[in-house]
Design goal:
This protein is α/β, with parallel strands linked by helices. It is 49% helix and 15% strand. A seven-stranded parallel sheet has the order 4-3-2-1-5-6-7, with helices on both faces. It has a four-stranded mixed sheet with strand order 9-8-10-11. Strand 2, helix 2 and strand 3 form a beta-alpha-beta unit. Helix 5 runs parallel beside helix 6, helix 15 packs parallel to helix 17 and helix 17 crosses helix 18. The protein is globular. The model has no long low-confidence stretch (mean pLDDT 96). Bound molecules: nicotinamide-adenine-dinucleotide and magnesium ion. Magnesium ion (MG) binds next to helix 7.
Length: 386
């Protein structure tokens, strides 16, 4: 029996890796829906190859463009557009890969959770913005939530099936340190968007690549871990591990530390979550430890990477603070990628917005979206002063 899958953000880095794994197992998964916001030619190519029932784009004009690009080969693909259509396909398929980047992915990820789907969550921003509400939606809908972020997938694989709260003492999140791990603050102030996106170990979309360079990515992941695994911030430790071979670890009360290892290739966590609790081939080459040679570890430098501290502070602050942090970061990263601000300004703008916006506890999704809008407006104001 094949399972139907909706891949939200199929034109992105995670989306394309997901299709790569799915294509290896036509007996297991059939593509119900593909969605993309840009790169319409690539989406058209995916539609011709995978023949989904539905394809979703951002606007009516894009829908028309996609229709033309797909051509007669894909005339059975129903094309729709907009956030409501994204939420609709997220409830229709048995498996949903939530791989849209940023806050734009939150409503559809929550919709999949509410509908009780098997939710493969790559869109960490959804959990950062709405941790409690998201986990409540998962519980209410009876969804199966499986983490795709490599660290969280690793932790998931190292956790006991039950009794984690009594037996686990700490969660150790590994971080590569990004492309600027050893760079001085002065030199960092002058880096270009392309330098920030040249990650030493992982090939990813541009937003998460910049987040890795500022280490905000690790901060977002600390918040993500807090919600996924119910661990308090004090029991989450970040350790720099430049080789990205250990994807994260779980420490037990008896001193045992379990690590999950592998080559840094997102097809491993994707295949794991797709097939869980079974295992399927992912196309990832076997880990050659002799070639890796050594595994190094160091403490993160919070002075050079203030975004990590900002994220810990937001997690310990009001329950609305992570949504404010996320919105400010999205605006600042977009401005950096556009050449509007320097690399060092990202942390400064996030700090300023966190200071300025009243992050009242959100009671429902609309409150989160409102907080997101307020924080974005404050970030744009801070940009004007930058
Ligand atoms: P990407 O930029 O390569 O792809 C993003 C996808 O989202 C694209 O399909 C794009 O069309 C779509 N999208 C963008 N804006 C949209 C909008 N407003 N509405 C609808 N769709 C929109 O990003 P990525 O690297 O694949 O990352 C996706 C998510 O997965 C992010 O949340 C990221 O943090 C997370 N993640 C990625 C990796 C990785 O290795 N790439 C690893 C861990 C977690
Ligand atoms: Mg990660």
């Amino acid at each position: 029996m094949t399972q139907s899958i909706a891949i939200l953000g199929s034109t992105g880095s995670i989306g394309r890796s997901t299709l790569d794994v799915v294509a290896r197992h036509p007996d297991r998964w059939r593509v119900h829906a593909l969605t993309g916001h840009t790169r319409l030619a690539e989406l058209a190519e995916q539609c011709r190859t995978f023949r989904p029932a539905r394809a979703i784009v951002g606007s009516a004009a894009d829908a028309q463009t996609l229709r033309g690009l797909i051509g007669s080969e894909g005339r059975d693909v129903a094309i729709d557009h907009g956030p409501a259509a994204l939420c609709a396909v997220a409830t229709e398929a048995e498996v949903v890969m939530a791989a849209i980047v940023g806050a734009a992915g939150l409503p559809s990820a929550i919709a999949a959770a509410e509908a009780g789907r098997r939710v493969l969550l790559a869109n960490k921003e959804a959990l950062v913005m709405a941790g409690t509400l998201f986990m409540e939606a998962v519980a209410r809908g009876g969804a199966t939530l499986l983490p795709i972020d490599s660290e969280h997938n690793a932790i998931f694989q190292c956790l006991p099936l039950e009794g984690a709260d009594r037996r686990v003492s700490r969660v150790l999140l590994t971080a590569s340190g990004g492309p600027f791990r050893t760079m001085s603050v002065e030199r960092m102030a002058t880096v270009t968007p392309d330098e920030a996106c040249a990650h030493p170990n992982w090939s990813m979309g541009r937003k998460i690549s910049v987040d890795s360079a500022t280490m905000m990515n690790k901060g977002l992941e600390v918040i993500e871990a807090r919600w996924l695994f119910g661990v308090e911030p004090d029991r989450i430790e970040v350790v720099i591990h430049p080789q990205s071979v250990i994807h994260s670890m779980v420490e037990y009360v008896d001193g045992s530390v379990l690590a999950q290892m592998g080559n840094p290739d997102m097809r491993t966590p994707i295949a794991h979550a797709l097939a869980y609790p079974e295992r399927v081939a992912s196309g990832v080459r076997p880990l050659d430890l002799a070639a890796v040679g050594r595994l190094d570890f160091e403490k993160p430098d919070l002075a050079r990477f203030p975004c990590l501290s900002l994220a810990f502070d937001a997690l310990r602050g009001s329950s609305g603070a992570p949504a404010v942090l996320n919105a400010a970061n999205e605006v600042a990263v977009a401005a950096f990628l556009d050449g509007g601000i320097g690399f060092g300004d990202i942390a400064r703008i996030v700090a300023e917005v966190l200071e300025r916006v009243d992050a009242a506890a959100p009671a429902e999704l609309d409150d989160v979206l409102e907080l997101d809008r307020t924080a974005r407006a404050a970030a744009h104001e801070a940009l004007r002063g930058a």
